[in-house]
Design goal:
2 domains; 10 strands; 14 helices; alpha/beta; Rossmann fold; 365 residues
Length: 365
């Protein structure tokens, strides 16, 4: 476990593990935000304190699993997995998480069901299940289901947000550095759902988030402005190394919690504790592959870029990778890589999330 200069350590929460039921995290649940009580759509539903509790519980569940201790608090409950997009990590991690908590899982693929209004799908599933994980294209589909659902709707990924991944990433960083506050995390590449969720969730945990994206591949301006407003209330910050496009997006929002910096990927990486990247061509953008690969050449996570980071820095990727595109094989397999720890932590974090949101769900009308 790394301890960085200037970042105070936190005591490990997993040193003492009980085999009894869930603690205060599972009983408290998420706060109600925007009328979506109990749902998990962007991660903003949780306060910093609640995220800290989730990470603590996830770390505890990880240790329990390695000791062969399994909870059964979701026995008799069923989780529905709805996939409008291909899935590997999301499908397996949620399935195993639910099963290891004593519950059951049912799955529905888009090609196996007729087209229905999202509200109707939610109402049908309310009669069968205690929670719904949806991996889809439009964020509005999740929002429409959450408005009518009596049970939690969990975002397994949308084109706009990927909060489960980012909470697992926060868990990974906490396990490596003990304390999130004061860390410098640099994201390189496409201004996509991963960057959106980092912008919304990382600064409130005290992380100084930097990002460098090509001119035509900036994060959504509305999400960026929302993230900047949130960052003003935290100990974290947001810094863009993306030139004129970022300047237009930030506009009057620039404050003590945000700034524009000169330079590009190398300058963004300087002194960072973590370098994070994602594929250059996400699902649904395959027709843009050639143009994207040209635009992103300078944003590859490679040895030259990693040389600018702080001692003890880590390499991150949400998977799947296209090696020799956004990341070199050398970096993917480097001793500083925590990529597969990130993927494992999807399981533990989502277990904590299910404990928190589903423990009091009741499918009876």
């Amino acid at each position: 476990m790394h301890k960085l200069a200037g970042i105070s350590g936190a005591n490990s929460v997993a040193s003492s593990v009980a085999s009894s039921g869930a603690n205060s995290v599972a009983s408290s649940g998420a706060s109600s935000v925007g009328g979506h009580a109990g749902s998990f759509l962007t991660g903003e539903e949780f306060s910093k304190k609640e995220i800290d509790q989730l990470l603590e519980l996830a770390d505890q569940l990880k240790v329990e699993r390695r000791r062969g201790i399994f909870r059964t608090q979701l026995a008799g409950k069923t989780l529905a997995l709805l996939f409008d997009k291909p899935s590997f990590r999301t499908k397996l991690s949620f399935t195993i998480a639910m099963q290891e908590l004593g519950g059951a899982v049912v799955e529905s693929l888009a090609q196996d069901r007729k087209k229905e209004d999202p509200e109707d799908l939610a109402r049908v599933l309310n009669g069968y299940c205690h929670g719904i994980v949806l991996r889809t294209h439009e964020q509005s589909t999740l929002e429409r289901m959450a408005k009518v659902s009596r049970f939690p709707i969990l975002n397994g990924l949308s084109d706009t947000h990927h909060p489960c991944q980012i909470l697992a990433d926060l868990l990974t960083l906490k396990q490596k550095f003990e304390n999130l506050s004061g860390l410098i995390l640099t994201y390189l590449g496409d201004g996509n759902n991963i960057l959106h969720s980092l912008l919304l969730l990382a600064p409130q945990m005290g992380i100084h988030l930097r990002y460098a994206c090509p001119e035509d591949y900036q994060p959504d301006a509305a999400i960026l402005k929302r993230a900047l407003r949130k960052a003003e209330e935290t100990k974290g910050s947001i810094t863009s190394y993306s030139g004129a496009s970022a300047s237009r997006a930030l506009g009057a929002s620039a404050s003590g919690a945000s700034c524009l910096a000169a330079g590009g990927p190398a300058e963004a990486a300087l002194g960072s504790h973590a370098l994070y990247t994602d594929v250059w061509t996400s699902m649904g953008f395959e027709s843009e592959r050639t143009a994207r690969e040209t635009a992103f050449q300078a944003y590859q996570l490679n040895a030259a870029l990693f040389a600018h980071t702080a001692p003890g820095a880590v390499i991150m990727h949400c998977l799947p990778m296209e090696k020799e595109k956004e990341i070199t094989s050398e970096m993917a397999n480097h001793s500083a890589s925590v990529i597969f720890q990130q993927s494992e932590n999807r399981l533990h974090l989502q277990k904590a999330l299910l404990c928190t949101l589903l423990v009091n769900a009741d499918s009876t009308y």
